[in-house]
Amino acid sequence: MKTELIVVGKTTDKHFAAAISDYIERIGHYMPFGMTGIPELKNTKSLSEEQQKEREGELILRLLQPADTVVMLDERGTERRSTDFASWLQKKQQTARRLVFIIGGPYGFSPAVYQRANEQISLSRMTFSHQMIRLIFTEQIYRACTIIRGEPYHHE
Q1: Are strands 33-38 and 119-122 parallel, antiparallel or unpaired?
Q2: Quick one: DSSP state of residue 124?
Q3: Alpha-carbon gap, residue 83 to 67, rounded angstroms
Q4: CB of 138 closer than 8 Å to CB of 16
Q5: Cα–Cα distance measured from residue 51 to residue 110, given in angstroms and rounded to the nearest whole number
Q6: Nearest CA-CA partner of 3 in 105, 74, 85, 77
Q7: Residue 32 pLDDT
Q8: Which are the contacts of 146, defined by CB distance < 8 A and separation ≥ 6?
């Protein structure tokens, strides 16, 4: 199973970018994993929040394949402990052809992306920057991989 993380915009903080790249490389030892960035929209001052979400949504939907299992990272999604997330991921590895996680733009997701998604997960009820969420989420994917393999990275 291929796992993909779709994000809106670039990771501009060099420290976050380096750590994200490190986790992506580590994840690659356990499963095929990639991160795809959608370019930030230009001239957004003339767009409403809804228009911006719609345009970003169109770009996101173009990257999806009909058979994809799509999981949005959304504040209203299901929260899981790391061990529960690892169990969930292990089940998805057995049933999904391609598992796609999406981190949206600054205003969230368009209704069309919500409709296409199979599920939503939340990393916390707190709000984090999109840069930080990328780092936290890639670390959690890596942690789940080590839990699945019974490696000592995660401690109860």
Answers
A1: unpaired
A2: -
A3: 27
A4: no
A5: 9
A6: 85
A7: 97
A8: 30, 152, 153, 154
> Could you read off the pLDDT tens digit of each residue along the chain, which spans 156 residues?
899 999 999 999 999 999 999 999 999 999 999 999 998 887 777 788 899 999 999 999 999 999 999 999 999 999 999 999 999 999 999 999 999 999 998 889 999 999 999 999 999 989 888 889 999 999 999 999 999 999 999 887
Burial class (CB in 10 A: 0-12, 13-18, 19+), 70: buried
CA atoms within 13 A on the CB side of 40: 12
In this prediction, residue 96 carries a pLDDT of 96
Q: 3-class DSSP state for residue 36? A: strand
H helices of the chain, in order, are 14-27, 49-62, 82-95, 111-116, 130-148
Q: How much is the pLDDT for 106?
A: 86
Using CA atoms, how far residue 20 sits from 28, 40, 53, 146, in Å, is 12, 19, 25, 17
| 48: phi then psi, degrees, rounded to nearest 5 | -75, 170
Kindly report the number of other CB atoms within 10 A of residue 111's CB atom. Answer: 11
pLDDT at 7: 97
Give dist(CA 102, CA 30) in Å, integer. 20
